[in-house]
Design brief:
single chain, about 475 residues, alpha/beta, Rossmann fold, Nucleotidyltransferase, domain 5, seven-stranded mixed β-sheet, about 20% strand
Length: about 475
């Protein structure tokens, strides 16, 4: 058997051996730097291609990574050929791929292929654009999956269906942020075959020896001082998902907010190009007591942007609960205003609703209309100046204090958590400056949103201060 012979030809440490022997359909590998992720998985691809005749595709983010992996594959093929006495010619070829990225710095991206005597192919290619790998038929390895654009979600949607046809998918990486598909896969070891190895585990089995500035063996503490970056060391060598160190709201706080919402009702509605709206949406299964507090982040009526309406159910003595969320794309302002008005006019909770909206630019007219209709119950907020920072400060405080719930950090509503998580803090250059400066990045699960849902939530939280919530008792 090729597989059995291979294990005697290559010197694997225990963690590498366990990965090489794993026959699971989906394998997730979270290993520290220089552990041999590429080395082991390329050996696995070559071995199984020889054994089964199936093709393997190793997808990297860059041409450099793809070429480095290809070189490892070539070495493994030559070693296996010699050791196993494999007859027949091995062919190599390359072709231009990833045409959507050819304009990047003038580079032409190429795929490189090895064809074995049994007809199996091992292909290493850069695959930044998931559409360019949609037609693959075979087993797939993703290298440094945590770095893939949009959190790797687009690539996963395209490639995972291959596993339903009997092929395998292996994702390998060191950790990055928690708003990635790699973090999601690593967090579910009951579903996926999960291989974890940090530097402590490698040292324990004698598979890694730290060295000092002169290349001599040293203690791990000395090596860590040489590295000189505690955050980077935790991520690169201890395999911790530390990407939330720059996030406005840490992932653990979002998880806590989701736990608070367990068993509580939530309704979500998408309205696209004016269709999909149902009258009577608000007030559905809404317990008496408290009131609705609205936040409306306004986007243009046409194009790819998303407008979001976040509706909290605020009850005295309870955290504010995200009860309704409406996203609107390509909708006329008149329809969006009518949806907001329906929420404002809903009295099912027992109190009159209040709200705030984004009155910057295109939202100015709509907010003037709402202010005229509802008086002090509605306030337009211009995002210029410090207002966005103030709203973000309110978001951070609400989640840190456990005063805001969201429906989940996994499953169909995870895009809400990732939208909040996409707000990144910018450190101030002055030690005495306590103000929050933020950057709004793209939501990996909702490409058209750059924290638009989160800002709607910030407006809703801020709307809670428009007037006092009357005391009341409610059973949830």
């Amino acid at each position: 058997m090729v597989a059995k012979a291979t294990t005697s030809m290559i010197r694997f440490d225990p963690h590498q051996q366990a990965l090489f022997a794993d026959e699971s359909r989906v394998i997730v590998v979270n290993w520290h730097r220089q552990k041999g992720k590429d080395f082991t998985t390329s050996a696995k691809a070559v071995s199984e291609a020889m054994l089964t005749g199936e093709d393997w595709f190793i997808v990297s983010l860059t041409q450099r990574q793809a070429d480095a992996t290809f070189k490892k594959c070539k070495k493994h093929v030559k070693a296996f050929q010699k050791a196993l006495g494999m007859v027949g010619e091995v062919h190599e070829r390359e072709w231009v791929c990833d045409t959507s990225d050819q304009a990047i710095d003038g580079f032409v991206f190429k795929a490189r292929e090895i064809e074995l005597p049994n007809g199996a192919k091992i292909v290493s290619l850069p695959g930044r654009d998931p559409d360019n790998i949609a037609g693959l038929t075979g087993n797939v390895i993703f290298t440094e999956f945590g770095l893939f654009p949009n959190g790797g979600y687009d690539h996963w949607r395209v490639v995972f269906p291959l596993t339903t046809r009997g092929y395998k998918c292996i994702v390998i990486s060191t950790p990055r942020g928690k708003d990635t598909k790699f973090y999601e896969l690593c967090s579910d070891p009951e579903t996926y075959s999960y291989h974890f190895c940090d530097i402590h585990a490698s040292i324990a089995v004698g598979a890694y020896t730290p060295s000092d500035n002169h290349g001599r063996p040293c203690s791990l503490d000395e090596f860590k001082r040489l590295y000189g970056d505690d955050v980077g060391f935790a991520r690169e060598y201890e395999c911790q998902f530390t990407g939330d160190l720059d996030a406005l709201v840490r992932w653990a706080k979002l998880e806590a907010a989701a736990l608070l919402a367990e068993g509580m009702p939530f309704d979500f509605k998408q309205v696209i190009d004016g269709s999909g709206w149902e009258s009577g949406f608000f007030g559905r299964d809404l317990p008496k007591g408290g009131r609705l507090e609205l936040g409306w982040d306004v986007a243009r009526a046409s194009g790819g942007d998303v407008s979001a309406l976040w509706v909290n159910h605020a009850i005295p003595g309870h955290p504010r609960h995200l009860r309704y969320l409406v996203t609107m794309r390509g909708c006329e302002f008149s329809l969006m205003r009518s949806i907001v008005r329906e929420a404002m006019d809903c009295t099912a909770a027992g109190r009159q609703s209040v709200g705030k909206g984004d009155s910057t630019g295109l939202g100015m007219e709509s907010n003037e209309v709402l202010e005229n209709l509802y008086g002090e119950r509605w306030e337009g907020v211009n995002f210029a100046g410090k207002r966005k920072g103030e709203l973000c400060s309110g978001i951070a405080t609400a989640f840190v204090d456990g005063d805001q719930t969201i429906p989940g950090v996994a499953g169909p509503y995870k895009f809400i958590a990732t939208d909040i998580y996409a707000i990144q803090k910018q450190p101030s250059e002055r030690a005495d400056d306590k103000s929050i400066k933020v950057t709004f990045t793209q939501n990996p699960l909702l490409a058209e949103s750059h924290c638009d849902i989160a800002m709607a939530g910030g407006l809703s939280i801020s709307a809670g201060g428009l007037d006092a919530v009357e005391a009341g008792v409610v059973t949830l």
